[in-house]
Structure formats: C-alpha cells, structure tokens
Amino acid sequence: MKKIIALALMTTTLSHAAFADGQAIDEFRIGILGGENAQDRMNSNECLRSMIEDALGVPTKLFAPADYNGVIQGLLGGTIDLSLMGPSSYAAVHIADENAVSPILIKVNTDGSTGYYSVGFARVDSGVKSLEDMQGKVFGFGDPNSTSGYLIPSVEIPTTTGASMENGAYFGEVKFTGGHEQTIVAVNNGDVDAGVTWTDGQGEWEDGYTFGALRKAVDAGLVDMNDLVEIWRSKLIPGEPVVLRNALPDDVRATVTGIIDTLGETDPDCATALAGGEVSGFDPITHDAYTSIVAARLAKSN
Cα(123)–Cα(129) distance, rounded to whole angstroms? Predict the structure, then answer.
C-alpha cells in the first residue's frame, strides 16, 4: 500500500517531469526485443506505454525492431529510452558505451527468486533426448545477441560436453532462426532438430512453465508441450534487466522507475504482459549483477 501511495504522489507531482531539471524531452520511447511477432510484442507493452505517457505528459511510443541489435543501437544512439532486455543485450550496450544506460529493475519470479534458464528442446517423435543425440543434426538458436538463445549455450555447451559450436564440428549445422518464437516454431515444425529458448523453469512443463518463451508459445496456441521434450538446461542466468538511458532527466528516470517498480501491485496483469508470464513484480538491480555476462561477451569476442 505504501508503494501505491508513493507512486500516486509521484505521478501527480511529476506530471510534467519530462521538462524537469532544465532539460526537455518531447517524447519517450520504449524498445522491445525480439522473440515473438511484432504486433504481439506491441500489444504486451501497450499498458506500460499508456501509463508512462500519462505520467510524463509527452507522447510515448513503442518500437519493436526486427532483431535484438535494433534495440541495442537505439539505446546507444539515443532513439530508445527504455527496454526490458536480456543480460547479453545489456552487456553489448555496456561494452560499447558504459555510460549509455543503467539497469534499474529485474523481474521477480512468483517464488521470490530472480533469474531464468536457457533450455534445449526437441520434438518427442524426433528421437532426440540429449545433446549426444544431436551430433550431426541441425541446432536452432534465436539471435546472436540473445543471452539464453545463444550466448549462454554457446559458452556452457562446449564447456560441459566438449561439443563445438562450429558448423559441422559436432552439430551438423548451428542455425539462427531470428528469435525465440521462431526457434520454437522451427522445432515444432521439424525445420530444425532441436533448439534453445528461455524459461523460468518453474511450474509444469505441460504449461510451458510459469513464464518465458515456451509459456508464451503455449498461451498463443503455437505448440503443445506434450509434443516436445527438454534435452538440456543451463545454469541459472541473472534475470532480465529493465534498462533506462542515463541521459534522461533525473525526474523522468525516477517517475518511470517508480511505475515499473510498483507494477506488480498496481497492475498485475500489465506486469505479467510485460514479463512474458507470471511474476510477482520487479525489484531494484544494478550493473554488478551482470559482470559475469559482460565477461562472457568479451571472451566470445576475443
């Protein structure tokens, strides 16, 4: 209740926050990473867009670029102000310009934990039950800038199994599908033999777990989880950060942070839509949570 009262006071007092601190912004822009079709991504973020627009008193727009790099470059170039990103995409921004953005909040799972997993999966009728069964077969990955869709499996799979990620060295082909939804559809249709995507790993497999790309695919009617089998799981990955551009006026940053921080209490349905499944809300986070992801990206680039 205290957080709700505080938010009400903040949004009333700062209804013209876009013109605070002697700085002016004439619009606010939210970038949405890939993972599902553009219209679904826009629909999932419309509730947040509307709240921020009402609070700031300036037009607030949604941008859903075709790939992850579109959001990364938008944050670096100042054409996107806010995004819920994968840790690897945030690391890419930080490596390019450590002063461009800051992580401000992280999704909190229904059990109070944070973090998620990269999981490998295949069709039950494919006969693939493990990574060992994938030798010589086509393995689908979402996007080179995806944490769960490429970075983490590309580091952990060679380390734990010795299987190289180079085409033909162990897997017959390592193929980028373009996003998480595309990977799920490609596996389900038999276009690739297995793929990786992200999930909280909580709840039931049949439901696509509690949140993540599998849950979204189930809710959208794209897959029946009984047709799929999990073949690999990563270590726990630091949760996806909400990042905010540092050049924004302080009062704008405070207002936007307050809206998302209290979203689990003020509008649980919006929190669920934004998070991609059931969450209890959002908690503060800092760059320190992502130093290992930054190090992994730097290692991959060397």
Answer: 9
pLDDT of residue 6 exceeding 60, the answer is: no
Q: How confident is the model at residue 3 (pLDDT cuts 50, 70, 90)?
A: very low
120, two tokens: 């490998």
Say if residue 12 is exposed, middle or buried (CB neighbours under 10 Å; 0-12, 13-18, 19+): exposed
Which sign, positive or negative, has the C-alpha torsion 200, 263, 265, 106?
positive
Greatest alpha-carbon span in the chain: 63
Amino acid identity at 100: A
Question: Of 238, 261, 288, which residue constitutes the final position of a domain?
Answer: 238
d(CA 21, CA 68): 32
User: Per this entry, what is the length of the chain?
Assistant: 302
Q: Which residues lie closer than 8 Å to 77 by C-beta, 6 or more apart?
A: none
5 contacts: CB under 8 Å, gap ≥ 6: none
- Domain C-terminal end among 238, 267, 284: 238
What's at 283, amino acid-wise? D
**What pTM value is reported for the model?**
0.81
Q: Are residues 195 and 209 in the same domain?
A: yes
Residue 198: CB atoms within 10 A of its CB come to: 27
Q: Read off the amino acid at residue 161.
A: T
Range of the domain at 155: 115-238
**Cα 110 → chain centroid:** 17
Per-residue pLDDT, averaged over 133-138, amounts to 97
Looking at the structure, tell me whether residues 77 and 39 fall in a common domain. Answer: yes
- Spatial CA neighbour of 114 closest among 286, 301, 230, 296: 286
pLDDT tens per residue, range 76-103: 999 999 999 999 999 999 999 999 999 9
Report whether pLDDT(44) > 80: yes
Do the domain assignments include residue 251?
yes
Distance in angstroms (rounded) separating the CA atoms of residues 255 and 13: 10
